[in-house]
Design brief:
The protein contains one helix and three strands. It is α+β, with helices and mostly antiparallel strands. The chain has a single domain, classed as TATA-Binding Protein, CATH 3.30.310. It is elongated, with a radius of gyration of 15 Å.
Length: about 80
């Protein structure tokens, strides 16, 4: 058994932290997702206790979901900014 940790540093303001938190439910056993405010920017930390090879796929899928959600937020902010500008 090995703990794997992944960190994602976003360029997004900390005020967006709650945008993904509702998705942090029903996580696999041994997985923890933390949302941190570091220097005014939103960082995400994912820890997972890997017991078998399939657990790496579970971690990868979770990270993919987080990245997709971040991309949607960034795209929405860009579109909103271009409408105002």
């Amino acid at each position: 058994m090995k703990e794997v940790e992944s960190r994602i540093a976003t360029p997004l303001d900390c005020k967006f932290i709650d945008a993904l938190r509702p998705d942090d439910v029903d996580l696999p056993d041994g997985m923890e997702i933390r949302h941190l405010c570091v220097g005014g920017q939103w960082h995400i930390q994912v820890r997972y206790m890997v017991e078998k090879p399939e657990d790496l796929l579970t971690l990868k899928n979770t990270l993919d979901e987080i990245v997709r959600a971040l991309q949607i937020i960034e795209t929405t902010l860009r579109q909103d900014g271009s409408r105002r500008g």
